[in-house]
């Protein structure tokens, strides 16, 4: 299983509310129809924290599309359904940076998270340090988050994919993306306001952390814990 993740920036002349409505209600059904797609989520930004200066464009949302493998993804990206998605993207987004990831393994601190609130962290550095960074987050949150949660870090295995030659992307080299679920919304907000996500751990550094509202557009049909 792989995750095709899109770090997306809204157009400056489109309001946050209009962007989110279009992404969810217009683009979501278009993307859901792409062949070979196993699962699809949209992560709408609630609040963000830029940990260190970066060249990457502003992140207004994060898409996650699951495929069996890169070959299945490549077939999907050549489809008429994907072309409809690209045409729609040009109408409401200003930039999209794509990374292909291997899903990390979920681990838990305290009580297992019930998907109450989600934080995503964009990491630069060495993808091979993903497991160490996940362990660091798990140990840090085990000491500071009384209600528990779940964490995984998904290392990047391919980069350089483009949505379309007319859609700008960032040149920052994203190494991994962390996902953290908390049981309480206030704990997600606290995670953004502290320095727990700011440290460099085994050559991985967080450049942006985002509190998101996850929408599952296409639910997985099997092995749900992998998503």
Note down, in words, how this protein is organized.
There is one protein chain. By secondary structure, the protein is of the alpha+beta class. The protein contains five helices and nine strands. It has helices spanning 16-32, 70-77, 80-92, 130-144, 185-193; strands at residues 2-10, 39-49, 61-67, 93-101, 107-109, 117-125, 149-159, 174-182, 204-218. Strands 1-3-2-9-6-8-7-4 form an eight-stranded antiparallel β-barrel, surrounded by five helices. α1 runs antiparallel to α3 (80-92). The radius of gyration is 17 Å and the shape is globular. It starts with a strand and ends in a 9-residue tail after the last strand.
In short:
This protein has helices spanning 16-32, 70-77, 80-92, 130-144, 185-193; strands at residues 2-10, 39-49, 61-67, 93-101, 107-109, 117-125, 149-159, 174-182, 204-218.
């Amino acid at each position: 299983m792989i995750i095709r993740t899109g770090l997306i920036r809204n157009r400056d002349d489109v309001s946050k509310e209009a962007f989110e409505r279009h992404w969810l209600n217009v683009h979501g059904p278009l993307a859901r129809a792409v062949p070979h797609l196993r699962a699809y989520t949209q992560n709408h930004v609630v609040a963000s924290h830029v940990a260190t200066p970066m060249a990457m464009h502003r992140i207004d949302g994060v898409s996650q599309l699951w495929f069996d493998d890169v070959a299945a993804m490549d077939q999907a990206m050549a489809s008429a359904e994907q072309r409809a998605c690209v045409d729609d993207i040009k109408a409401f987004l200003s930039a999209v940076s794509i990374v292909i990831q291997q899903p990390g393994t979920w681990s838990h601190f305290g009580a297992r998270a019930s998907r109450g609130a989600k934080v995503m962290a964009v990491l630069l550095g060495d993808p091979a340090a993903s497991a160490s960074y996940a362990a660091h987050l798990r140990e840090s949150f085990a000491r500071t988050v009384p209600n528990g949660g779940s964490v995984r870090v998904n290392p990047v295995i391919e980069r350089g994919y483009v949505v379309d030659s007319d859609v700008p992307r960032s040149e920052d080299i994203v190494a991994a993306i962390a996902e953290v679920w908390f049981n309480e919304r206030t704990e997600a907000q606290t995670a953004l306001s502290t320095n727990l996500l700011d440290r460099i751990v085994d050559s991985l550094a967080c450049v942006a952390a985002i509190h998101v509202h996850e929408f599952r557009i296409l639910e997985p049909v099997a092995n749900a814990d992998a998503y």
